[in-house]
Amino acid sequence: MSRVGKQPVPLASGVQITVGDGNAITVKGPKGELQRTFPDEMRFAVEDNQVVVTRPSDASAHRALHGLSRSLLNNMVVGVTDGFTKTLEVQGVGYRAQLEGSSLRLAVGFSHPVIVEPPEGIAFAVEGPRINVSGIDKEQVGQVAADIRKIRPPEPYKGKGIRYLGERVRRKAGKAGKVGV
After folding, report:
1. Taking the model in full, what pTM does it have?
2. How many structural domains compose the chain?
3. Distance between CA atoms of residues 181 and 171, nearest Å
4. How far apart are CA 146 and CA 86, in angstroms?
5. Of 125, 128, 129, which is closest to residue 154 (Cα–Cα)?
6. Are 95 and 134 contained in the same domain?
7. Cα 170 versus chain centre, distance
8. How many C-alpha atoms does 72 have within 13 Å on its Cβ side?
9. Which of 1, 3, 48, 57 has its CA 20 to 30 A from that of 64?
10. Contacts of 16 (CB under 8 A, 6+ apart)
11. Tens digit of pLDDT per residue, the chain (181 long)?
């Protein structure tokens, strides 16, 4: 049995789950509403303020989907109650991030500023050199943060660029210089 899949998903107060046709699950909570369609093989049962995910057999495909389905459902529940945040850091001389309305304006060494528009359900916050990407959908928050990092990834010689908070960038030595001319 999957160690992740057999754990029930606890429901916080104020969270409602509805299982529709074709395993379309809707989770409503204080921060919003999320919907996802799960594989037809998985079974979801709501009992005693928790959701239990079961699989039909021990086939390897079912075992793989069991833990995945439980994790995705748990991320939906956590998202509508607490939300998710990814923090990025801008490092480099003259590198800046600032908000213009809801958009993010990045000055990261190009001849022009880069404007990033937030998708539906995503909010940006800038605190000095840090950019917070927050929302209720974990997958979407991670993808938007990865797209921002991709604009100017950290380079190994000076370490300039956009990186995740706490990300270690392996540094290289650079040129050795001329010897004995």
Report:
1. 0.88
2. 2
3. 28
4. 10
5. 129
6. yes
7. 24
8. 20
9. 48
10. 27, 28, 29
11. 568 888 999 998 889 999 988 899 999 999 999 999 999 999 999 988 999 999 999 999 999 999 999 999 999 999 999 999 999 999 999 999 999 999 999 999 999 999 999 999 999 999 999 999 999 999 999 999 999 999 999 999 998 999 999 999 999 888 876 665 5
